Protein 1
Amino acid sequence: MTTIRSTVDVEGTDFAENRESMLEKLSALETEHGKAIAGGGEKYVERHRKRGKLMARERIELLIDEDSPFLELSPLAAWGSAYHVGASVITGIGVVEGVECMIAASDPTVKGGASNPWTTKKSFRAADIAAQNRLPMINLVESGGADLPTQKEIFIPGGRVFRDLTRSSAAKVPTVALVFGNSTAGGAYLPGMSDYVVMVKERAKVFLGGPPLVKMATGEESDDESLGGAEMHARTSGLADYLAVDEQDAIRLGRSIVRRLNWRKHGSAPVAGYAEPVFDEEDLLGIVPGDLKIPFDPREVVARVVDGSDFDEFKPLYGSSLATGWASIHGYPVGILANARGVLFGQEAQKAAQFIQLANQTDTPLLFLHNTTGYMVGKEYEQSGIIKHGAMMINAVSNSKVPHISVLMGASYGAGHYGMCGRAYDPRFLFAWPSAKSAVMGPAQLAGVLSIVARQAAASRGQDYSEENDAAMRSMVEAQIEAESMPMFLSGMLYDDGIIDPRDTRTVLGLSLSAIHNGPVKGAEGFGVFRM
């Protein structure tokens, strides 16, 4: 039997403490999400509504199929920066007329929907996900263009937005722009480079230069409608393919466009009739300890995420600090690599490399569940070849061609973050739990390393070393690294695609796997040189 047998004591004290710790983190996360949902604040929301306009999230809700999910991505982008949480744009995957689409909606209540540097980065990430997973792109447009005081950080890289649209079209993946308001200056190229364009009558304004700029540049007197109004573009310039009478009509037309795409997935369909996990997803709140130094068995997580809690473990007696095996999630086959006791040794690295090759041989997507402090250090391990073994695992991850999904459950430190397919290794999706932490090493270890180096430097110069200054330095460094390791900081930096409630993990993975299968799933035909 390959059904996992759970040993979690849901009535125990440890479980209760873990659950309480996770709920506290989720409460803090909900507060930060609330800032993104609130838009530009009550004043600007009210002004927007008085103009008879829908909020960006309301537009998305009307666009997607009734009662279908919306997988929002990077909702905490720009967290901890000078910019509004969420980066003035909403991105995510939604189902429109049965077709999974990447949807991006600028939030006009935040500085008129103007793009700041984090808006650009978040849009790039959405475009990457759309391209990798062959998702049609729908832009819900109402933006004043670039946030001019930060143009130096936007203008040059920002051209990628338009490049991505044209490349999507060339790859036969349609792009749609629904224009609800301003789309001016460089932003005019967003509808200009989309396959299908809908503009709202008396609302949409699309022009390279508005009346003031035209006046300054040419001396010509003009008005918004003659320069870039929806009717002008529908009747005269031909930029608008459809003229909508209002916002609801624009959304209806957008749905109609998608319905006529004759879209089909290139990946395999999920197996029908799969079973739900045997164990309750609520248990996921109490599995990860509040103190990440305390190990936990990732199989307990797997048991509450995969179909039927059925996990066919590969090499269970070898390299036991890493659990590897086969399962399915919502009918999609997956290979799973999950850190069991934090540290990765040579056996774990070799086991992972073989497992990744096997997944590529059978065109099976891979799921990485992170809780690692990195590869083991020390004389014994260096002499046994930990560097070449770790390099073997990283080589396999780097050259694997099947889709990867990463979930950071606990620690994700050092090169272990790389070997387990961290952000730099292009997983199709990367999500974090509120319990996750990621850095070059743990805060105490990093501060300790700096202390040792400083002591050695002082000794080499023949100077006394101040224990008081050392304690202050260690405390400062630990606090800094702790803050920079937290999931909200990393999510704000767009190092993940969102922090998720552990109870939603199965659903989020199912949505991600479904999106992945819009394109073909095919493994690598070769790998680089493995150092033996």
Protein 2
Amino acid sequence: MIPNYPPLIETATDSKAWPFEEARKLLTRMERMDAPPEEIIFETGYGPSGLPHIGTFGEVARTTMVRHAFSILSDVPSRLICFSDDMDGMRKVPGNLPNQELLAQHIDKPLTQVPDPFGTHDSFGRHNNARLQAFLDAYGFQYEFASSTDYYASGRFDEALMRMLEVYDRVMEIMLPTLGEERRKTYSPFLPVCPRTGRVLQVPIVERDAKRGTVVFVDPDTNERVELPVTGGHVKCQWKPDWALRWFALGVDYEMAGKDLIDSVKQSGLICRALGRPPPEGFNYELFLDENGEKISKTRGNGITIDEWLRYASPESLQLFMYQSPRKAKRLHFDVIPKNVDEYLTFLGKYPGQDPKEQLGNPVWHIHGGEPPGMDVPISFALLLNLVSASNSEDRDVLWGFIRRYAKDATPENHPELDRMVGYAIHYFHDFVKPAKSYRGPSDLERAALQDLAERFAGLDASADAEAIQAVVYEVGKAHDFENLRDWFRGLYEVLLGQSQGPRFGSFVALYGVGETQALIAQGLAGELAR
């Protein structure tokens, strides 16, 4: 059970933070119950037809935030079930996997019966389940992992499956109007697992017996009639009835879903009511988009993997990306990472000085389960990236030499978060910034301004800080005939750093060094950087 925080209840009751708004839905749900619940069940779903991606992580992270908010408002215990639909038949081979020919031989088999193309587990489904659990465990999420294969085969769904057979006609009334004419001819809420081939079949059910708990289908290859019990893993439900089956069997009270599943949530909710239980609370979040504005997909592999994000930034920055604006579509591409790192540090820096209401609305409260760490990071991630870029060094010791000049008492030992960021900055620079750098020579106007800037830097006091340096940069820009000071700063970045944007230039110079910046200007004026 997540601990309750009574002193915060009054403030949390009125909090506008979306996890609290969601948690209050559960309070209303409990008021409608005939008796107080023993516990509240949260669920997230995972389809292991492809490698886990950030969307899956995001659903667990966001649900955990709602669960924690609920723990502030109520002392009713709760559980989070992370459910893997690994009994689903593999409909196509994801294009980003090895051993394509091997996998193609097992189309329509349950994912837990498809060989692992990586050779590390007994099936593709188990491999993907393990990948997901490894990350969730490393991050410290509190959850219970559930396998569809295990639940069907062990009999944990048997009672619910028998109930589904009893209300078969009602389920068909709900589903058939949503289907095309051809699909209606073959649709059934039950998908038989063929005893002969082991494949999950999408075939009509020609007979059913609710008392015996069996269904009959015609084998499409042999044309023979086959009778199977609906229990014990001999059938699997179509995914919308399957979703309702889980809600009914597990007593799920809360599950969120993507905006593309609004109609599915509605249909599954109707089926859940037909089974005899109200559907869970939840909300529909917007989808993540790739760099082209298209929906990310496990099978296409066009999104960022969890491992890729964590090569370039902290788990906390990923949590922040998940927390902010869940109902707005967001680009999930590598260029959003630096911004999220620095925004996380900004929110963390503001937290100690905020009142309780503001703290509950601060993303770091939700990211850290109500206990954000005290942390002082004197340098932004954007500034670190530009330091690596200007110094052309990927050596941590060299970079720390610059950092100590900017923050004299800083060391990797007393600033471990900053040291971690140095590693992230090196990776990000090497993989994204360096290949995209494009220097140019200065225009006549920029040349005159850069020469002026170098001369004024020569007259700076050795103790000049970032503010004093920034003031000089502004003075130079105003002294020359730029139509807009933005053009002056854009010129600085494009000529000296090979990019169109950058951090506050005074802060960069204070970190990199006035003398080093003068040398950089000389190289830019001579055309050496552009070459």
Protein 3
Amino acid sequence: MYYTEVKVSIRFKISGLIVVLVFLLMGGVGYAIINLVRDSFLEEIKLRALILARNISFSARDPLIENDNLPLFNLVHGALRHEGSVYSYILDTAGRTAASPAVLMPSEVGEDSMEIHLANSFWQKELTGAIEIPEKKVDDNQYEAKIIEVPGWLKNVYASDTIGPNEQPKPAPEPSWTDIYELAVPVVIKGVEGSVTRKKMGEVHVGIDLTSLQQTSRRIQMVVGGIAIVGIVIGILGAFGLGALLIRPLKALVKGVAEIARGNFDYRVRKRTNDEIGDLTTAFNVMAKDLKDKVLIEDAFKRYVSHQVADEILEDPDGFAKSLKGERRQITAFFADIRSFTTISEQLTPEEVVSFLNYYLTEMTTIIFNNEGTIDKFMGDCIMAVFGAPVMHGDDVYKAVKSGVEIQKKIEALNKERIARGEQDIHVGIGINYGEAIVGNVGSTQRLEYTVIGDSVNTASRIQGLAQSGEIVVTHAVYQEVKDFFEFLPMDPVKVKGKAKPLAVWKIKVPIHTSETYPLRTPENKDKPKPEQEGPKPFGFPSPQPE
């Protein structure tokens, strides 16, 4: 089974996170405010009920002792004149009502109009659902309070008692309130003088309607909910604005990365903010500059060594750095020089000399690089190359000789074109030696040059001077390494500078051509003027191609 990865913009991630945070914050604050207001209202209701119940309790002591019912009726009836009270009753020591409970019920005027009704049918009765006061609280003259549902006895009052002046049977509708805060206070008298013992004479119960509290809570919930919605909307807008503010420089950085990937190392991203994204932009621009410098260095480095060698060096720069310290190594030194170039160049302008040398050296360098050689230096029309440094291969000697053969063949092809155009042909002598040399950086603290020095290099230079036009002369050490791959012709031992004994040298069998061996004119050009009649063209180079 394959799953497609869904890409979610960072703008939506940031916006979603901020919306969630705003939602949680507004929800938490709203919940805290609602609870705080609810607790404050409940505390106020409890205080109101407690004061009312304490006053009734204080006034009910003597009537309870004397069993005087009329004052008790007046007390429970008067308790309902206070706002929010929905019922009140007084219990005697046996737990029965000492007076008819007073209850708020709808009047004949309408359900919205309430009047105080004395539930006479519940006089001297035990009421179901009444809260109980623990004995310990009675001894401490404390109260008991709870939020309860509409008690069963109150529902029975609404269902069985009658309303109206004529006491006609007419059940009252169900009460509109659902939760009631009931508070019970014991009616106690002290014992004998000096004693802390208290005697319970009865209880006063007061029920307070929590509808106002619920309505207030709902209003607060609506207000807080509205504020939360506004806050969430503002949070969403702010989140998207912040996301856009953050995305804009990030998109610029993404575009910059794409430009760098395409090789446009001159591309720079404008720094718009002075924060972490601004620091990232600065770091990106520094990186782009460093990459450009690195590419320039790599490109320049590849002008000195072949691309294959350059890649190997760049893959292991630490190993290459160690080789720069200088070490003895078996290398193949290669020298190639144009014969009689000084005489020929005297017939050319300086611009023509430089143009031709650049063309010739480019062609020769390409061959050397293709065989993983390294250009050590250009000395006028002479090329010095090294095979086996800075990177060694198992076939460096073979590739050096192969490069010489390919160069001579390239010169042969060039000469055919030149002679056909009436230009003077050129010839190159090549010398190759294999032996030990010191490889590393040589120079001063201001300028260093990676090169090879040693007797083997000097010997290669000497035998290059022995090579005639079109010849490749190698030492016996080279011959021993590649004699199975090329056809050699023996030469007489030669005496070279710096050597006490004559040096054994060999010549590779390569066709040598001069202007006499090339056909100067084809049959179709037989009747045309000779090239020399068109003007002196002793030495030429390919004409520039039209753009």
Protein 4
Amino acid sequence: MKRRKFVSLGTLSLGMIPFLGFSATESTAENKPKWIIDLIKLNDSSITDLLKYQILDKALPAYGGLTDGEDIPNPHSTNGLISRGIIGYTNPESAFYKSEDLKAKMILAAKYLRKIQHADGTIDLLATNFHSTPDTGFIVERVTASCQLLKQANISETDALFAELKSFLLAAGDALSVGGIHTPNHRWVVTAALAKINNLWPNPKYVKRAEQWLAEHIDLDPDGQYTQKSTGGYSAIINNALIATAAGLNKPELLDYVRKNLQMNFFFVHPNNEVVTDASNRQDKGGVRTFEIYYMAYRYMAILDKNPQFAAMCRMIEKDNFKNVNGDLDHFLEDKFLWAELPAEKRFTTQYAKYFDYSKLARIRRDNWDATLLINNPNFLTFYKNNAVLRGMRINASFFGKGQFQSPEIKKEGDVWILSSKLEGVYYQPFSADKIAPDGDWEKMPRSTRPESEIQQLETIIKIKEVSGGIEVDFDMKGTDRVPVSLELIFRGDGKFTGVQQSEKEPNSYLFSQKEGSYTIGKDTIQFGPGKLEHKGLHLRGGLPADTGSPSVYLTGFTPFKHTITLK
């Protein structure tokens, strides 16, 4: 069980901001909206699953802890049982309400969590980080929510569990007050965690350290994206962290950053409601992600601002991935502000062509299809037709081992988007006699200082424009003649092709020479063509290896290579 399965940093803390208030001992048993009750019942299955991973052999060192999928006991899985379990234990709608067995097992888990906490207050992320302040922050965010739920429930039988969690948090607070970070988002994770502990047990050192991180300013670019551009992961974490910090430290100005990021996301929605992740520089880059991780921030801001487009995003998430919203249930229970009805929704735009300078991509969306154009990326184009997905288009020429195309910029001329690159292949002349290394050492006679000759050139210009129902991609590769070229269309899934021929040499590879081809997933079809097949060299020297897990269609030729392909 990976960290992010348990540590989606969503939190709405107690604080001084007027719209975020509840009594710490207030009962949450009354007037729960149906969607909250539904999530509580879904949470029961999470508890059942987690209990399977708990170590109950007293002879083992990890007694009380939980293992991950690789049978490694760890703090994140262990806290997962505590977090999910407290929801069940404190809510009458749960089958685990006031379960003595569950309570006993949560106390064992809390004791183990305390046992593996280092003397400096930190915990380890065993996959990579040790004595980790930021990973401590991720866990603190959940443990503080658990403590708030115990206080709200006001059940005296949980005093022993609360005491264990309090000891963990106070030790963690010491670590968070002095410890360092790795990545930009860690600053806001730590700051939010400090704000949450401070809500429970106020301490000036927590606020002082949080202010020290906040003094570095929030790293939001003019596009509305954070430094890591992690639309499928860390951007949502940052939004929730900033909401927590705004509430806990009475800094409503931080919500402006959240608004801008949530507004930007309207332009990062594929027709099948997945998130555009291609610009990310974290683990989610190019991955399949959906928007449930943003649900709490969208709901919070929709209610606060009475924003109909934020409400529309909430409804989209509920329709597509309601059960996955369960990950933030402790926070929904923690603050009744989120129980309010959403405002009337107004659908965000699905008709646009827009360039994002800081994210280095262009987005074209026309209702049921979209295209993404990418800078400095061999997969320079994606095309979605609802659930039929061309997840990458690549072109390579066997030009001195460096012919894999990627463009350093996107230009727009009228209604045409232009990607381009220029390459040179150089030969080198002998050194002059006075510069020759006496020992003949090649490294002492670098190519950078040799005279150049027989310089070969390859220029690639790709023009992309909209046509009815899709896009047209025009290729023009010229310079040195007779250079082999391979154009690759990488699809996603196990759909059905027409108009292409299975390669005899490679699995999942198809040759395309016909006038038209198609790829169908379910009810959705991408049509593409015409084809071109002048040779069968699919993977040319210097190009990226085949993506064997995805079905790929190949067009081939030689320079000068001129071809136009349409995607609809």
